[in-house]
Amino acid sequence: MTGPVVGGGLTVARIAACLGLLVAGAVVGAAGWLALDLWFPGGLLLALAALLGLFLGGRIALGGGIGVGAAAAGWFLSYVLLSAPRSEGDFLLTSSGISLYAYLLGGTVLAVICATVRGPYDRPVPAPRPRG
């Protein structure tokens, strides 16, 4: 990606892509949280498949784990916002069963896998140079 360098090798386009992935993670996360209890276990599998696509897309788009991190941060932000009690005293996420914990654990595992596994689209790792 080209553009003015902001600092540390980050370009304006890369920062905009990270912010876009943060918003996409929040949207996909909110949809996943709401679909989770509607069709158990199908909703859980659908929500995890959407997260896998988002995390892999973020990794491929930005060429590394930073894309996965931005999407995962948006996903977790949606959980924090949806699980906070509202002023009326009720919760939007009422699930306290196994599906909630399975989605939290499954999404976290998918984020870690997508951030650390190397694929055919990654550049090869250069061999270490001998010191001396």
- Give the helix level as a range of percent: 55-70%
Largest sheet at a glance? Answer: 2 strands, antiparallel
Total count of strands:
2
Could you list the spans in which at least 5 consecutive residues all have pLDDT below 50? 3-8
- Biggest sheet, spatial arrangement of strands: 1-2
The quaternary structure here is single chain
What's the SSE pattern? EEHHHH
Shape: elongated
Q: Rg to the nearest angstrom?
A: 18 Å
Content-based structural category: mainly alpha
Q: Count of DSSP helices?
A: 4
Q: In percent terms, what proportion of residues is strand?
A: under 5%
Describe the structure.
By secondary structure, the protein is mainly α. Helices cover 64% and strands 4% of the residues. It has four helices and two strands, in the order ββαααα. It has a two-stranded antiparallel sheet with strand order 1-2. Strand 1 and strand 2 form a beta hairpin. Helix 1 (12-36) packs across helix 3 (65-83). The chain is elongated and about 65 Å long. The two termini are 35 Å apart. The relative contact order is 0.15. Mean pLDDT is 83; it is low at 3-8.
